[in-house]
Here is the input.
Amino acid sequence: MADVKGPRPSDGSQTGGSSDADDEADWGRHLGTGLQMLVGVGLGFLLGNWLDKKYGWSPWGVMACTMLGLAAGMYLLIKDAIRMNKD
Here is the structure.
């Protein structure tokens, strides 16, 4: 089947109005989303580790706080995905 959109440029540029600045903004946005997840889980782990040492709850403090951090990261991920879908 023939290419309906026509030939692609051979210089690597895109046809469709997307610029390099848009690609870089998307890259940064996705990096920020991943970092939000990482920070949420990391802070949950640290808080849980501190609670385990302070109150002797091992391993329940780490597990509970890490899951809360994961849930917070997923909430932010879904919120960003909905916002990106609207844009």
